[in-house]
Amino acid sequence: MPAPPAPPAPPAPPAPRAAPAAGPALRRAALGTADISFFVVSAAAPLTVMAGVAPVAILLGGIGAPAGYLFAGLTLAVFAVGFTTMSRHVRSGGAFYAYITRGLGKRVGIGAALLALIGYNGMEIGVYGLLGTTTADTAQALWGLDIPWLPVSLAGLALIWYGGFRSIDFGAKLLGVLLVAETGILVLLAAGVLLKGGAHGLSLGSFAPGAVLVPGTAAVLAFAFAAFTGFESTVIYRREARDPDRTIPRATYIAVAFLGLFYAFIVWTVIQAFGAEEVLTAATEDPGGLFFAAITTYVGPWAADLMHVFIVTSVIASLLAFHNAINRYALALSEEGVLPVGLGRIHARHRSPYRAGLAQTALGAAVVLGFALAGADPYQQLLLWVNTPGMIGLMVLMLLTAIAVPVYFRRTAHTEGPWRTVVAPVTAAVLLAVAICLVVSEVDLFTMASTTVNTVLVALVPAVFLAGLALAQRLRTRRPEVYARFAEEPAHEGEEQPCPLPTPSSPEPASAPSTPAAPRPAP
Length: 523
Prior knowledge:
Number of strands: 0
Order of helices and strands: HHHHHHHHHHHHHHHHHHHHH
Shape: globular
Number of helices: 21
Radius of gyration: 24 Å
Structural class: mainly alpha
Largest sheet: none
Distance between the termini: 69 Å
């Protein structure tokens, strides 16, 4: 009887990607806790948020508006617990999408990667319209000059490109100066109000249940959550951070705590400046001038002039912070093989992802010029229409990350406690889902647009995510080696030159993640 035929040999695993040629890498150990905090707080643009958006929050929510900022900060602090715990176990430069991949699989991770790239670009590019309008308003208020917005926005594109082209520590120093200026003018306003006792004496009525539990609180919460956008980018700088297992969590908590307490304090101070009854009238008559009127009364006209200037620098700081974050996302996706490899080039002298910066600047210029040629308003259309889907997209990414955390730790050996791995992330997921519903339900307050436009802007978020899922399927079938390595751990954290990522033995390892390094105790 003949012997049975030998079974066919199993297919060979995908060939490992060749190591790239040795070359410059991002500057190692360049950023401390303060530096990273400057980046993420600057992205939130505190002065612009306060002077430009807080009056609308007061108008909608009344004197209870400060409590909305505290609640948003508390929610994001709970989210940060699981988020920063993940940062000690996942060292990939992809941040959001790497965390989501570990917990929810490669398909969802690639969808999240595309959503992150589009979301951060949306958050930055729209702000060039705000740069044009705030600069024009400042020139008119201080010198009576009428200047067009487009040349200012294009000059801003060049300035932000240069800031991103230079070394990361140069950017951190610049943002530190700009952040001190914009927060300093708000502290000066608060000090003036407190020293003079406000309009009718100081009161904590803003935090009373009767002031907080009003119909307009939902709208305030939507504005408050939007005011924190960008704080989560701390983990993007992991490769350039000193002792990232400690630096990243510290910077994240500092950013959330500072923004939550500072926003609530400043909004409360402005309410005291006018009085509980009068502030609503002032916000109705001139919301854009509310903060300028307060600082003129309690400090002096010269301080109002400084506030005009510092609003422009606040916008510039926000643009530079988002530009740097986008460049590092693009660099990570280039190293993954999802984006063209040319975008992953790092400048030999400045150690910056300069190719990604050029591409991002070119995209920004194309969008800005497109809106200008269409005759669009730089504030109501370029800013609001481009920013809104970006903001919602980043909130969806936070929700997916919060869901991914307990799934990841359920399958992975670790020594973290249940508060960090289950309770906090599940609580954050519920709160973030509520926050997203609030923002979507009040989206007309953000866009000032028609129902049709709002529907399109909101629908862009799931559309981009679905496009990412389609991209994942395409990579899996046509470029399986790229798909197999997506979001895998780097061989050595902080290495001076890029190296190939380890090749897994199967194309879908998300359900059985690679064994992480021995976990470190929480800082």
